[in-house]
Amino acid sequence: MLSSFFIGVALLMGLHVQTASAFIECSVLDYGAVADNSTDLGPALTKTWQECVIPQVTTTVATDVLLYVPAGNYLLASTVTFDDAANWNLHIAGDIYLPFNPDLTGTMLTFENCENILLNGPGAIYGNGYRYRPDGDLTLYPSRPRLIRFQTCNNCEITQVFLYDAPMFHVTIIGDNNVAHDMAIIASHIGETDGFDMSGNNNYVHDVSVENGDECVTVKTPTNGFLAERITCKWTAGCNIGSFGSGATGVDVQNVYYSDVTISNSDAGVMIKSYPNCQGTVKNVTYTGFTLDAAAYPIYISAFWEGGTDDTGTLEISDVTFENFAGSGTPTRPGVLLDCNKATPCESITFSDISLTDTTADTFTNACGTGLSGLEAC
Ligand SMILES: *[C@@H]1O[C@H](CO)[C@@H](O)[C@H](O)[C@H]1NC(C)=O
Ligand SMILES: *[C@@H]1O[C@H](CO)[C@@H](O)[C@H](O)[C@H]1NC(C)=O
């Protein structure tokens, strides 16, 4: 009697200790997933999340509750949305493959209205994007799927998961205080394969590498506070701001800082790109420590990136600093090209230590600043 009382107490304490130390692993294999590369992982992710993860989240430490995809090969044949997700960890140790399915559309993994989610590897997602773009044709399956989206998410982290060849964009993050770091994206050298598209406040991308044919680490509106450090971009369209879309009003991008970026074989180095009919503000942007190798348009601000030449816009671009740029552009393009709206010239564009080879002469239209010969003072 007495001893069973003590066993009972010990059991209770044991349970209590287990909950408090709180490491709970919810494996997709217990909820219908099969690592056979043919059973759809999508429903198992949803079921694991609903039946195991949600009921067991009791702390705000994301790594306390894992939605675990163990090592093995999985087919992800349907999209999954984690809505109102908070305080858990999608831990992908396996390799996830997308099928080719012309009807597959949307985003494969969406986190929506989320808070403090960790998405990490060491696994990988293989998008098989090339199958959706036979012979490089981007028009055949225009609704082909995107890979990962954090939509209205704060304090999230994505790291150490490899992403290969999404049918469309790889990672979109919208929200505040999110971090993407220590990961690689590798895709075909073709358009609509964006690496990281970031918007919101105080997001941070560091120690990532992107090989694709479109945006590397790019800032979208609205953004207030963005930091990118130690970025490598291969065959990309560069680290850009924009574009903002035709007729965009209320563009608001401020306090952006890029540092220690290596860009090779690229369609651009850094661009602020807009349509000539946009309105709003881009200000206080710093690019420092860029190493370029065969980057067309190494430094380019264009209000006329797309949308013709009809100069009706009033996008105010000011306080943009380019410092410590070294390496090569391409022999047919200017090293620095500033092409701004007449009504709102680009102001306080500052250059220092710009040393670019294999370029044509810099050109400046409706822009003023310091640090390059031929650039008007403001
Ligand atoms: C898994 O299936 C996908 C698509 O159906 C295929 O591309 C991939 O090579 C397969 N992976 C393995 C390891 O067999
Ligand atoms: C400009 O942006 C940086 C961050 O990149 C920030 O530290 C600084 O305070 C901003 N300056 C102004 C005048 O807002």
Automatic annotation (TrEMBL):
It comes from Lentinula guzmanii. GO terms for biological process: cell wall organization; pectin catabolic process. The keyword Hydrolase applies. InterPro entries: Glyco_hydro_28 (IPR000743), PbH1 (IPR006626), Pectin_lyas_fold (IPR012334), Pectin_lyase_fold/virulence (IPR011050). Belongs to the glycosyl hydrolase 28 family. Residues 1-22 form the signal peptide. This is Pectin lyase-like protein. It is found in: Secreted. One of its GO terms (cellular component) is extracellular region. Keywords: Cell wall biogenesis/degradation, Disulfide bond, Glycoprotein, Glycosidase, Hydrolase, Lyase, Repeat, Secreted, Signal. It holds the Pfam family Glyco_hydro_28. One of its GO terms (molecular function) is rhamnogalacturonan alpha-L-rhamnopyranosyl-(1->4)-alpha-D-galactopyranosyluronide lyase activity.
